[in-house]
Amino acid sequence: MSPTITAFKESPDEGQGLARDMRVRWALEEVGQAYDVRLVTFTEMKEPAHRAVHPFGQIPTYEDGDLALFESGSIVFHIAEGHAGLFPRDANARARAITWMFAALSTIEPPIVEHESASLVERDQSWFAQRMVIIEGRIRDRLGDLSRRLGAADWLDGEFSAGDLMMISVLLRASGTNLVEEYPNLAAYVARGVARPAYKRAFAAQLAVFTDSVR
Ligand code: GTB
User: Fold this and answer.
1) What is the Å distance from ligand 1's center to 71 Cα?
2) Which pLDDT belongs to residue 81?
3) Fewer CB in a 10 Å sphere around the end CB: N or C, the chain?
4) pTM for this entry
């Protein structure tokens, strides 16, 4: 049996890879694990059946036999643990890959999401422009540090890992800001990630949800 994940039936980005099922799809593609997708509407996400799997009424979720998971980080971690290809064999290198996953989710992603939500809901406020300068400064601080650490390397720590998958997924969330482009090595890092065949397959599958819905 293949695992089943959930994704938006109607994603606001029309399948441009920004919703968080994308990182789960990418991980599954990297390890060659087939999967099914259950598409949910915004209403269905808040209903008891979905909340039984996801307490916060969101996507993505992951169900495989008796196991039901939510949180994209936990799901990608589980996929990486159960298959070869996303975590190094060496125990210390594996621990560092996990550390990069956490860094992506808890250090880099928060100011990027804050920028996105401020752009959506605070645009009409008189202080909007000043607030954006502050948030963009926070993002630049993080990206500058990340850029210095990455240097001229292809990936964050040796071979491509779940740490890179998560970091690149998070950097893609900033695509509306053009901030990543200020750091050429980070832009190239993201480009290397999205050039991976597994990423392309995942992106095509997510986009197909939108293209099928408008046919
Ligand atoms: N911490 C959780 C995780 O990592 O899994 C966060 C999950 C989450 O935020 N899910 C969002 C969701 O279900 C979808 S990804 N939102 C609906 C709700 O809360 O009611 C966030 C997202 C949504 C849409 C776009 N977009 O269209 O550009 C980008 C990102």
Assistant:
1) 10
2) 98
3) C
4) 0.97
